[in-house]
Amino acid sequence: MPQIAQLAATYSSQIFWLAVIFGLVFFVIGLGMVPKIQSTVDARDAKIADDLARAKAAFARADEIEEDYRVRENEGRVAAQEIVAAAKAKAVKDSEKQVATADKKIAARIAEAEEAIRASSAAALAEIEAVSAEAAQDMVARISGAEISREAAAAAVKAALAHG
Amino acid sequence: MADSGKIDPMHQFAIEPLFGTDNLSLGGYNIAFTNSALWMLVSAVLLWAFVAMGMKRSLVPGRWQMAVEFFTGFIDNLMKQSAGAAGRKYVPYVFSLFMFILMGNLLGLLPLGLFGIHPFTFTSHFTITGALAVLSFSIVLIVGFFKHKLHFFSLFVPHGTPLPMIPFIFVIELVSFMVRPFSLGLRLFVAMTAGHVLLKVLAGFVINSTNAGPGFGVMVGIPSFVLMVGISALEMLVAVIQAYVFALLTSLYINDAENLH
């Protein structure tokens, strides 16, 4: 077994070259290059974590904006409904008022017209009475030749008219 | 070895100095540049080339950057699970350890012999695995005593131990603690050596049975070859698992040092 047979002759060169070469490996690769590779990996991991955190924050912000928008939309809808209700109420009130004034005007005109009708029918009656009294006076004069006073004729006509 | 009619399954572990550096020495110690050192260097360069492809540092990674980040993320997770947040500062060390061992294990399995290159698995030498284990163990000791001072010894007395049991438990825990570097180093060395020996023995069956005649070749050589294909796949798995086990145990030991119990 050369490992044992050659031990005495080769141990020093083996250990010397191992120390030199492994030393180079450790200092050049282990200390020189590995930390840089690790820092690259760390930087990448940090970037990924950071990006994820930012994406999550953006999601949260989007949700917030949506919520805010929804609240404002609801508020707007409520306000619009209030305005519509108020306008409707006002319109109803206005139309009621107009109808009331129109009613009043119409009632006044009806009253006026009725008054006029009453007045004219009274006038007509009075005329009929007068004409009837005259006619009655003439008839009495023609039939009996008696002269009756205008007042008596009028009273007789009135009595006849009142009895229908 | 083959010319004597025998294939030595151990020859693949032999260390040979290269480029005439047989007698290169430092402070009286031989530091010849061997095939083992060469394969360590190849592993290190390939590892560097691989990790360099993850250095584009773009926000949206390409496939190579993704692959490199998979491995750093894997070790990052391992340390986080084993040692918590304090484990992150050990990621460079455990990553280097894991990837270096993984490269060594996998490179040793490449069928480079077909191209005349002699592959060598440096993780099949306990000099190497032992040195790495001792390195991990030293880090545990240094961190443990630096962070917790003498309180680190409370690691050997689990919570709720009855007072009369403390001396025994302490000794048992201490022994199990001291055995760690040996078990850590030997596990990897044994797994890699056993797998390579098995493959080489089966390869010897294929060659020798075929040389003995077509009948033997069909009866012994082909089944052995089929078995080799399966075991090669298994060895790839073992190469990854053993590198993972080494890194995992290192992370668990570091957790002991960082957080005691």
Describe this structure in words.
The complex is a heterodimer of chains A (164) and B (261). Chain A is mainly alpha-helical and 164 residues long. Chain A has one domain (2-163). Chain A is 95% helix and 0% strand. Chain A is built from three helices and no strands. In chain A, helix 2 packs across helix 3 (150-163). The longest helix of chain A has 138 residues, at 7-144. Chain A is rod-shaped and about 195 Å long. The relative contact order of chain A is 0.03. With 261 residues, chain B is mostly helical. Chain B has one domain (36-259). Helices cover 66% and strands 2% of the residues of chain B. Chain B is built from six helices and two strands, in the order E-E-H-H-H-H-H-H. Chain B has a two-stranded antiparallel ribbon with strand order 1-2. In chain B, a hairpin with a 2-residue loop joins strand 1 and strand 2. In chain B, helix 4 runs parallel beside helix 6 (214-259) and helix 5 runs antiparallel to helix 6. The longest helix of chain B is centred in the C-terminal third of the chain and has 46 residues, at 166-211. The chains are: A mainly alpha (164), B mainly alpha (261).
